[in-house]
Amino acid sequence: MAEHQIVLRRAIDAVHHLTDPEPPWQDILRTARDLVGADSGTLIVFDARNELLNLSAIGFSDACFSDYQGHYHRCDILERDSRQALAGTWLDTARMYSPAQLQRTEFYTDFMVKHRMAQILCLIVESNSVMHASIGFQRASVDLNASQRMQSGDFAQYFRTLQSQLAQREKTLAIGWKSIESAFSEVGEAVVLLHKDGRVEKMSALAVGHLDDADGWTVRGGRLRHADSKVQRLFDTHCAAAIRDGKTRSVATASGWGEFCWIDISVAPDTLSLIGGPLLLIRLRRKSAFAMPDVIKLESVFSITHAEAAVLAGLAAGHSVEEVATLRRASVLTVRKQVASLLSKMECNRQSELVRLASLL
After folding, report:
1. Of the CATH numbers 1.10.10.10, 3.30.160.100, 1.10.10.60, 3.40.190.10, which one belongs to the domain with range 295-359?
2. Which residues does the UniProt record annotate as the domain HTH luxR-type (predicted)?
3. Are 327 and 311 in contact (CB under 8 A)?
4. What is the pLDDT of residues 98-109, one digit of tens each?
């Protein structure tokens, strides 16, 4: 009894770290497996199209991990038969299928038997339109009372704690996403949270307006797509590379005469991932060659007067000194003096350098 309490305490201590920026899933799975009395433990996440998003396992051999990830997730009978089940539902092969039914499935005969699994128990921990996730336990022998035992006493306490901590993490993620959305929106950037297969997890309100171009970037089938296949291949390549080495990549695409869309691709913070697996943070901003630079921003960034910033904006928009003078109802001499002041303050030698600096904003 004392040993059981020690195992329970370790398992609960581990699951309390679900709200950490990077949850220790291996420790959570290890202590949960020991508490349940199983041979192995898994965290398995599928997307809305029933494709495997993430597999974490403790106690799996390399061959078992490879077999499931490479093929057998596609014929996982528990995943197939629980797609409509709600979070909190327990699944048990020993209770859901008779021995004869199991033996007629490829999953049992070619995967479970090969890897000495007589019974699989799993708890659905997340079930929504985006993902279907479960924490599972594999046993080499059948215990017909196992699933009932998991729903009573100390076991029930543990799994309630697990689900409570996941719910708390989900709330924290929602707050974090709102902060990111707000911060980037204030500087005119749209943001999209993306899975490695291109499936959209979240997008900011500004992104909705950016992703409605029939000839450019859109969301089709829940995935971020571009009308040009060459652009799409380049984007997919950059996404894969960013996940691999953590370095930011950028893609620029034309979105009309004199306009283009600039996209930065980087690995999202772990604090935005609910149940493991890498996510990408996509930042989008549209630029136009005909857009008038922001006078207030020029004034602030280059520490110049408001009048000088207005002149600089006019030059950056392609106007001559004479045209800027006309637009500002000032004399050409006054504008020339302001240009000279700009050259001094911004440490430039030519007017073209002023324009280049202004165009960077």
Report:
1. 1.10.10.10
2. 301-358
3. no
4. 999 999 999 999
